[in-house]
Amino acid sequence: MRRFLFVLYGTLAYLLFVAVWAYFIGFLSGLVVPKSVDTGPATGPLEAVAWDVGLLAIFFAHHSVMARSGAKRVLTKALSPVLERSTYVLVASLALGLVFWLWRPLPKLVWQAPPPARLVVLAGFWLGVIVALVAANTLDGFELFGLRQVLVHFRGRAPKPTAFATPGLYRLVRHPLMTGILLALWCAPTMSEGRLLLATAMSAYIYLAVRFLEERDLRKTFGAAYATYQREVPMLVPYKGRRRFRHEDQRLDRE
């Protein structure tokens, strides 16, 4: 029964993440969802900025704290280690859902692409969505979002150690998931002040968190192999001038 409950918990956390990710796409694009980045209760600009920054701070605080090794050790003292990743995903989904629910719009236009350029920018948005989805599932999407751990436990098997690999997009940039998210944030045919606030805040956080938190943990975990990877592959923006990384026999840890 305990193993079944673990699978139920992990499955619900995973499905909630999928729903929140789908809503995020609609939140940015304004498609299908009832509330987008440019809709919601009207407030004064200063109040909206303060409200939105506060919501994003909650989301960022979760990622900064719960993804760190020290927080993971504390969490696994209260919960089974099998549920650690699912719990992280669950709290992240709830925090992002809170942003969607309580977001205050800043609808004033910053730019609006004309018809020919609009299609190009829109293609960039959907390219970002595809890159993020592909990157999330290139290694093991079920493991990344906590489902693999509870299924392995349910079958009574020991979890395999996470190793370091650089397949597909990971040969172009070290964090292709974040690259895709950045593309989706900034490729806006219509950029409002609210969308600009969201894109700027998330972009700044992604850079700082990856540069100073996640990569520090990856270096501790994988040592010289990851240091070599850092030297040879750019962090977020692919560009020429670095040698192609060939350590295909290793696997990449994820926060």
Architecture blueprint of SSEs:
Layout: H1 2-29, H2 45-66, H3 69-78, H4 84-102, E1 109-112, H5 115-138, H6 141-144, H7 147-154, H8 176-186, E2 190-192, H9 193-222, H10 224-232
Antiparallel strand pairs: 1-2
Brief overview:
This protein has helices at 2-29, 45-66, 69-78, 84-102, 115-138, 141-144, 147-154, 176-186, 193-222, 224-232; strands spanning 109-112, 190-192. It has 255 residues and is mainly alpha-helical.
Report on the architecture of this protein.
By secondary structure, this protein is mainly alpha-helical. Helices cover 65% and strands 3% of the residues. The protein has one domain (2-232). The protein contains ten helices and two strands; from the N terminus they run ααααβααααβαα. The longest helix has 30 residues, at 193-222. Residues 247-255 have low confidence and may be disordered.
